[in-house]
Amino acid sequence: MPNAATLPLLLKQLAFPSMYANWETAAKQAEKNHWSYPEYLTVLSDQEAVIRQQKRIQRHLKESKLPPGKTLDSYDFTATQSVNAAQITALADNTNWVSQANNVVIFGPSGVGKTHLASAIAHRLVQQGVRSLFVSTTSIVQKLQVARSEYKLQEIINKLARYPLLILDDFGYVKKSEAETSVLFELIAQRYETCSLLITSNQAFSEWDQIFPDNVMAVAAIDRLVHHATIINIQGESYRQKNAKQKIGGDKVKS
């Protein structure tokens, strides 16, 4: 006959840390409230599931490399009228577009909050269980170039495919060289209709011939990105320039 004294050892062996920590407290509550055996087990299982989900989210947030502090709560939607708050919130709250391998492309001049919005959307999605990875486009291109030289390009692209959402920040800063843009195109092509991309760029599609030296490659990349995509255009003045002007104005008033 099973010995109740072995229960904590079994829970520890089975790697149920929450159950291990709470089974005695829950047992006293069960006795006091006249819970059935299934009710007692359900309470313990629910606690275990909640703790595991919280740890999973924290682990995925850490591995996502998202910039700290750039969430929807910290974004000032009143500063840029061209940003539709309802649209951004819908992208952040609905994981379906990632499940369907759709893309989001955010255009706008430097300093208008493109990176903040992309990070905020991804942050909310990670909290809903979507594994994401934030990278600067320049850095990932360099990594892919090294991988190609070592005949490991496909291996790296396969590893990136473990992330349903890949955020490519500052897409427009890639140098116009065949070596860089060819690996970038390879990444876009292989994620097409299999995994999602969230791209920020200060250059509109019409200017992507400055990124891809081959116009055919540029058209092919754009075609794959926009086939299933939400396009967001941000207009307005750089936040940094605004703050600088306000500071200068404030200093003049003080003087």
How does this model look, in words?
This protein is an alpha/beta fold. It contains eleven helices and five strands. Strands 2-3-4-1-5 form a five-stranded parallel beta sheet. The protein starts with 6 loop residues before the first helix and ends with a helix. The model has no long low-confidence stretch (mean pLDDT 88).
Present the secondary structure layout.
Layout: H1 7-13, H2 17-33, H3 37-64, H4 85-93, H5 96-99, E1 103-107, H6 114-127, E2 132-136, H7 137-149, H8 153-160, E3 165-169, H9 178-191, E4 196-201, H10 215-226, E5 229-233, H11 239-254
Parallel strand pairs: 1-4, 1-5, 2-3, 3-4
Helix pairs in contact: 1-2, 2-3, 4-6, 7-8, 7-9, 9-10
Q: H/E order of the elements?
A: HHHHHEHEHHEHEHEH
Q: What structural class should be given to the helix and strand makeup?
A: alpha/beta
Low-pLDDT runs of 5+ residues are none
Mean pLDDT score, rounded?
88
Using DSSP, what is the number of strands? 5
Shape: elongated
Distance between the termini: 87 Å
Strand content: 5-15%
Number of helices: 11
Q: What can be said about the biggest beta sheet? A: 5 strands, parallel
Percentage of residues assigned to helices: 55-70%
What's the alpha carbon Rg, rounded to whole Å?
A: 24 Å
Strand order of the largest sheet: 2-3-4-1-5
How is this structure best summarized?
With 255 residues, this protein is of the alpha/beta class. The chain has helices at residues 7-13, 17-33, 37-64, 85-93, 96-99, 114-127, 137-149, 153-160, 178-191, 215-226, 239-254, and strands at 103-107, 132-136, 165-169, 196-201, 229-233.
